[in-house]
Design a protein that fits this description.
Oligomer: single chain
CATH class of the largest domain: Alpha Beta
CATH architecture of the largest domain: 3-Layer(aba) Sandwich
CATH topology of the largest domain: Rossmann fold
Number of domains: 5
Radius of gyration: 32 Å
Distance between the termini: 46 Å
Helix content: 25-40%
Shape: flat
Length: 807
Amino acid sequence: MDKKKLTERDICTKYINPALQNAGWDMHSQVREEVSFTAGRIIVRGRLHTRGKRRRADYVLSYKKNMPIAIIEAKDNNHSLGDGMQQALAYSDALDAPFVFSSNGDGFLFHDRTGLFGKTETTLSLDEFPSPETLWELYCQYKGIHQNARQTVEQPYYDDGSGRTPRYYQTVAINRTVEAVARGQNRVLLVMATGTGKTFTAFQIIWRLWKSKQKKRILFLADRNILVDQTKNNDFKPFGQAMTKVTNRTVDKSYEIYLSLYQAVTGSEDEQNIYKQFSPDFFDLVVIDECHRGSASVDSAWRQILEYFSAATHIGLTATPKETREVSNIDYFGEPVYTYSLKQGIEDGFLAPYKVVRIDLDRDLQGWRPSKGQTDKHGELIEDRIYNQKDFDRQLVLEKRTEVVARKVTEFLEQTDPYQKTIVFCEDIDHAERMRQALVNLNPERVKENRKYVMRITGDEQEGKAELDNFINPEERYPVIATTSKLMTTGVDAQTCKLIVLDQRIQSMTEFKQIIGRGTRINDDYNKHWFTILDFKKATELFADPAFDGDPVKVYEPKAGESVVPDDEQETLEPDATELPLSEEAEGYEIEPGETWQRDDSQPAWPSDDLEKTKRVKYVVGDVEVSVIAERVQYLGPDGKLITESLKDFTRKKVKEQYATLTDFLKGWNQAERKQAIIEELAEQGVIWDDLIKDVSKKLGAEPDPFDVICHIVYDQPPLSRKERAEQVRKQNYFSKYEGASKQVLDALLDKYTDDGIEPIEDVKILTLAPFSQIGSLMELVDAFGGKPGYTEAVRDLEDELYRQTP
């Protein structure tokens, strides 16, 4: 057997798998092959989206389920032993597995990230692969896990039998936290972006610490009642009768898992601090959800609870750790044991990317000054000074400004989807109410259809609060638009929110990240894969802050008179269309094979400051005109640089990077053993073939070959359809040198090319399908050409004839 002729999969089956089995690895419970551990970034172009390539490891080895310790990257035997090492090391970074191997079937190159094995990289023969016990021992030494802590670290995850498994980053977060606690670390901080499953992660951490009996009594603290209820009824449900929610002023101490609002166990009077009914050493573990909201502040009510239970281990969970001169999560908890950022979540395809539409209003940029002695609508003398964006809706209300913002929101909804869930963030409750009224007046038909089309949902208004569950429920159409001042700044799961409107000045990076997080959840069932931010108060300038880590896929700033909808979304598509508007491209992304572009058509909470109506003087002016003066469009590519070119321009640039001239392209195309290889390579670099082909097809009235698409778009040559190319070959009397079955086969291959393109005719397996199978068997047809080399040469000659007639 010639090893050089074996595929990568053959190398795995014949050499790597036996080596693992001989080393004592259980192929069912400890070895996973071809592991896709990301979902593939969602790439948005116009109203379409597709998935980028998933990250796949050839092998992930785990000592116990969900405890990966080693990665193997396999290559065929035409590669050197270490050719897969750099790729494997990148996977090792993501999966937190310190032992890394590369193999071509001759042996293994072993890279030890612990420094305990000896040399960093060592060549091993096939029969020298380390056993699970050997690597686990090294792993525990590396992590500082002593013998008495191993029972905790080796405690299995909860498994409900449904097949649900943690995502890779959740596994890393759970394992690192459990390991830290097992080592005796008493303050642990875990940072995970909104929408990445912090509560499920917390459940698995608590489950393993509880089941291992390292932590027997546990308090889970949150600051929103809906968060506690969601947690109890969903992720924490397996705790069953061992769990309770603290609701009364007298506590039952017979439970092991306690869930509570911090407000439920604290009060202004000492007798209201019911947490003191527990002894200070009652809890072994306190888990603080959204810990940036209170535990970081030295004088907060949260901090009082934590200091009372100071003997317990404290685990803080947050998407946005708070670091100011007065407040610090890191000072209290220490550096995070793991951080999974918004940027990484978007890159992995677990979080929704977003576009930004920036809208500048003339009064915001130029300011407004009252005339001498001018009074407002209520007869108040307006202080004589220049008012600008930071004053509007806080100290001065320009009623027509509110109308302009509401009109732009309505315009966007009408041109995209009038029923997409929308949150409008306003300065305060008064502003939210005025915005509600403006939106109601601009959408009379929608409101007539259902009065709940627009609702104000703020902490002071019971009817709006009562609609909270309906707003975040994907199955409920109404309310569609929620106006608020602090709605959904933390924690509530609004899976189908597609539009976030910012008419609020946001100075806090923590608050900004939380607001952006309201739209980042993905819901495939309801076609929620990305969302849009309409920014009226320059809040999205915080994207430029180094502390922000998730760039938008598009920044749109239209000019006066232009549509508020980004230009890539303005093209009207049929309901089932998957054509990509040509103003878009997928620069820098590799598309997952088999993915196509799909259309996307189809929680709230209220901090205490939202309950107090403002007491400050607020002038109201109704006769000052306000207009839009600027709206702009740009893309941010994977490298963070702005992209403004169209799909055609992008294609020209990418192709000319490899083939500067038409002559260069023709030479490369004709010399390629497989034309499809060039097509696939360009697709991996972001060329969207389907959309380019559709565009050229409109001009031709028939479908072109990708060859003609490139020649036409990149080199300005007139295109031919596949049918025209096939007819030209027949006119050249090309088949005269063949007879019998071979002539029939070539004639049928030409028909197949006309119908389906170049890809199928380059695969000999096509001879097993109709109409070829009706001419003869695979062996008979190949023999008609004098054997496989003769058949391969005939197909190559046919391709030469097809592309001989250049445009």
